[in-house]
Amino acid sequence: MNLYDPWPNEVTVNQHTYRLDLSFDNVLYALKARGDEGMTMMDRCETFLQLVIKQDIPPVADWVDVHNAIIDLITTAKQKPTRYDINGDPIEPKGEGEHIKADYDFDFDASYIYAAFRQTYGIDLVKEQGRMHWLSFVALFDALPDDTAFVRIRHIRSTRLGDIKDKKQRDAVRRQQRELALPDDENKEEGGDSYGS
């Protein structure tokens, strides 16, 4: 990202340039389709390309390359989840292989994200559908301040219970994590406590 070039709206792969619809709502919809486990990988890839590319999609042989070029274009380093300690300070991963579970979901947390954008920037995301570029949305999303409910919820979800020494405080945070759990976390918890102790 830089401030002297326009936001990118195309990718070039194998000497073919593809114009893209990178409005934030369209990208969110395409990413949701890309994660639909009810479809085959090829169907997911095709659907993603159909949603994002404004013209005919590439030949099947180029699908993966074009898909990866688009993902590289829309993915920023800050989109990786961050784990926090009990004080709300970010914790650096101990090793590159350490898995950090997601602390937000664009669909599940939609109302909190909408409210955070209204509170912080005065932006009505519904009115920005089809207009706000994905990279603009992500830059604002990554800069949401701690005084929004959405960021506080992310902090609670990503707190490691094992780092809390006080049992009462650990139990209180565990209770909050259960109340605010993402759908996948709730399903995992049915089989046991997925938050540690």
From TrEMBL:
Short name of any one Pfam family annotated for the protein: Phage_Gp15
Stretches for region Disordered: 166-197
Basic and acidic residues: compositionally biased ranges: 166-178
Superkingdom of the source species: Bacteria
Name of the protein this chain belongs to: Gp15 family bacteriophage protein
Organism of origin: Lacticaseibacillus suilingensis
